Amino acid sequence: MSIFLYGFVGVITLIGCVNIFNTISTNLILRTRELSVLRSVGMTRKGIRKMVSLEGVFYGATAAVYGSVIGLGLSYLLFKILIDLREFPWTVPWNNVLTAVLGALLITWAAGYLPLKKINGRNIVEQLRMEE
Description:
With 132 residues, the protein is mainly α. Helices cover 83% and strands 0% of the residues. The chain has one domain (2-129). It is elongated, with a radius of gyration of 20 Å. 12% of the residues are buried.
């Protein structure tokens, strides 16, 4: 039973990660002209990389805050439902919350950083001429 549950959680996690990668990658690809304009007016590749990395960390931090609050609320609600079946104390699962926060930060950072490597390798003039 535990193999089935862990497999199910793993598949759901994988689907969520792919969704995050797809959303952030598409966002960066659609903003290729904007990033090219920033490069053409003097922003360095390092500056753009830093900007996109901070944007990814911001997405991750926002997701971690909302996810932690909602997850803790649902955990407590489940505890209240199951307290009638068996008595046990409710504690905040700090290890799980920390794992989720670090995972969200890492996934959103990587989702922004990896497509940026492809975009930074292109010519500025070609990116500015590109039609959407």
